[in-house]
Amino acid sequence: MGIRDTDRTLPSNRLVFELRRDAEKYAAFRRDLEGTLEAFGLSEAERQAWRTIDLAALARLGVHPYFLPQITRLFKGGGYNHNDSDAARLYAEKMGVAQARPAGKEA
Description:
Elements: H1 11-19, H2 23-31, H3 33-39, H4 44-51, H5 55-61, H6 67-76, H7 86-95
Helix pairs in contact: 1-6, 2-3, 4-5, 6-7
């Protein structure tokens, strides 16, 4: 699941690219996930992975590795891009990555 596995024709790659650059499309995504997935022509496998935020499945399908954490930001916001942000915790959870605890935070 690396850069060589990226499918440049995969609709999910175009979806992430455009949502991160077009405020109107992003707003539509936040209002209507299913409608957005339909509008971008995602396969049923892609749609299911988006519905469940299954980053590993999206990677296997050919989503660019750079876009995987971007997907969590689409769902959780990206204003606070830190290792303890909601988006970073979601990425770690979905990818099975252990997170280091921020200084001063106990288990």
